[in-house]
Amino acid sequence: MKKNLINFCAAVSLFLSCADNQPNKNFETLPSGLEYLFVEKTENITECKPGDVWNLDITYYNSADSLLFTSKDVAAAFMMKVPEKNTVEGSVEEGILLMNKGDSAVFKVDAETFFKKSRKIDVPQYILPDEKLTFHVRLKNIIDGNEYQKGIDEWIDKMNAQELLMIKDYLERENIQAAKIDSGVYKQVLKEGRGSVLAAGKTVTVNYTAHFIDGREFDNTYVRQEPFKFLLGSGKTVAGFEIALSSMKKGEKSLFVIPSKQGYGPDGRKGIIPKFATLIFEVEMVDFE
Questions:
Q1: φ, ψ (nearest 5 deg) of residue 139
Q2: Is there a single domain that holds both residue 119 and residue 218?
Q3: In a domain, 254, yes or no
Q4: What is the number of structural domains in the chain?
Q5: Is 148 domain-assigned?
Q6: 188 and 181 in contact (C-beta within 8 Å)?
Q7: Whole-angstrom Cα distance, residue 180 to residue 248?
């Protein structure tokens, strides 16, 4: 019994000792108000310049220690572009600029600074006034910006080439007698129109169905019972759709195959359009004026 009591007192003493040595007391503060604490610090100084790319592990929490984000759920290699030296004061980027390759650090960032100035969005309702977010960051690598962009460009070229082969196979498989009209957009007239073709600066009204190359539909004005009306050339839609409409006459119905380069490109549209998605539109030109 006495031995157990001694062990219990020792445990309590150790806990109190740790409590008196909270990491907060070890944080340093920049003039901007950013608080930082290095967990691991390498000896080698690694230079980075604006336009280079950080490869990071990054996780951040709110003041209640609830996880808000972890890069491990987003990508195997999470990247951030190195900003200009006069980046937002008090931002997590300002803290990462202090780091060398291989360093690990913790940063305390004003939530309003992070959301409004770094991410340029409204502060979420669940964030408390004057709340600070805690970021855990490990700088895994620094990649030269030119080399990184070269790799991205090569990857995009490879994916675009593969997509063109898929489009060719799709046209043959579906027996679509389509011809290229501009910038790789294919067109097959289903019903002839009348008069002259559409020109930029006209307000156009169309109905359409839209699907991917695998047949999945992603939009349909007939189902919505709401024709699409907009000013051609205003940038309200993707380039390929404007190219398609610019070839049409009133009353015409045509099928268009739009490569991703003229659609939503390598990024797609989150939750709606996949990356490098070929878009298939069947369009009815209702009117333009």
A1: -90, 100
A2: no
A3: yes
A4: 2
A5: no
A6: no
A7: 14
Cα gap 254→83, rounded to integer Å: 46
Q: Do 242 and 173 reside in the same domain of the chain?
A: yes
Residues 6+ apart with CB under 8 A from 198: 204, 232, 245, 246, 247, 248, 249, 285, 288
Strands 132-143 and 53-61 turn out to be antiparallel
Pair 160, 276: CB distance under 8 Å: yes
CA distances to 60, 82, 92, 94, 95 from 87, in Å: 20, 9, 10, 6, 10
Question: Quick one: pLDDT band at residue 268, thresholds 50, 70, 90?
Answer: very high
Over residues 228-253, mean pLDDT:
93
User: What residues are paired with 105 via a beta bridge?
Assistant: 38, 137
Q: How far apart are CA 276 and CA 236, in angstroms?
A: 20
Residue from 63, 133, 68, 54 nearest 98 by CA:
54
| 206 DSSP β-pair partners | 228, 285
- Model pLDDT for residues 14-72, shown as the tens digit of each residue: 333 333 344 445 899 999 999 999 999 998 888 889 999 999 999 999 999 999 999 98
115 and 229 housed in the same domain:
no
**CA–CA gap between residue 216 and residue 206 (Å, rounded):** 21
Distance CA(66)–CA(79), nearest Å, equals 23
Position 33, amino acid: G
Other CB atoms within 10 A of residue 88 CB: 17
Domain span at residue 201 reads 157-288
- List, as one string, the DSSP characters of 216-247: -EEEEHHHHT--EEEETTSSSS-HHHHHHHTT
Q: What is the value of pTM for the model shown? A: 0.71
Q: In the block, which residue shows the tokens 């969005």? A: 121
Amino acid at 117: K
Give the span between the Cα atoms of 192 and 195, in whole angstroms: 10
Closest CA to 257 of 246, 243, 271, 269: 243
